[in-house]
Design goal:
A hairpin with a 5-residue loop joins strand 5 (about 65-70) and strand 6 (about 75-80). Residues about 1-10 have low confidence and may be disordered. This protein has helices at about 10-20, 25-35, 90-95, 115-125, 130-155, 155-165, 175-185, 190-195, and strands at about 1-5, 35-40, 45-50, 55-60, 65-70, 75-80, 85-90, 105, 110-115. The protein is globular. Helix 4 (about 115-125) crosses helix 5 and helix 7 crosses helix 8 (about 190-195). The protein has two domains: about 1-155, Jelly Rolls, CATH 2.60.120.10; about 155-195. The strands form two sheets. Strands 1-2-9-4-7 form a five-stranded antiparallel β-sheet. A four-stranded antiparallel β-sheet has the order 3-8-5-6. It has eight helices and nine strands. By secondary structure, the protein is α+β, with helices and mostly antiparallel strands.
Amino acid sequence: MVRPYLVTGMNITLRQQIERIVSLSNDEFEWVLSHFTEQYFKKHQIIINEGDYVQNDFYVVKGLIKSSHTNPDGKEHVIQFALEDWWITDPQAFHNQTKATLSVNCLEDSKVLSLTLDNKEKLCRELQKMEYFFLKKTTAGYIALQKRILCLISSTATERYYNLLDQYPGLIQRIPKSMLASYLGVSRETLSRLATI
C-alpha cells in the first residue's frame, strides 16, 4: 500500500536521525517530509526483485528488512539487514537507475518512508543541510561496507559473530539462524557453536 505522506504530525524517528547531523526548523522538516512516501509491507513481501529497476531508497520506521544476492547456483548471500532507523535499497541500481543486482525483502511487517532519486536530488539541490546529511550518511555507508569486507576477508568466524552483535543489537532474536549464517559466511553448525561461546 502506497500513499503520499501526510504531514499531520512529524515523524520523530526520521527527524531525530537527520538532526544527529543537521538541525532543521519545523517548516524545513515538514518540507523534507513532504518528499517521502509512506509505505507498508507484509512479512516476506519483496520490495525489490533482482533484475527490476529500483525506484526508491527506503528508511525503515518499523520492522526488519534484508538485502541479498542469489548466485547462479541458487545460494543466497545476505548483504545487509535494516532495522528501525536504517536505510536500505540496491544503491548501485538506485543511483544509476539500472537493474537491481540485489533483492530486498521484509523479514517482518514493515513501515518505511520511501524516497525517489528525483526527490532526493531535489532535497539536496534546494536545501544544503540535506545535501550535507546525505553526504554524511553515504560516507558512513561506505565506511561500514569497507569494514564488512575487511571483516569477511580477515576476521575469524568468532570475530565476525561478535561484530554482528555490536552492529545489530537484538537482531539474533529476530531472524532465522540460516540468514545469520549467510550474513556471516559460515555454516549453521558453526553459527550454533558460536552462539554457545
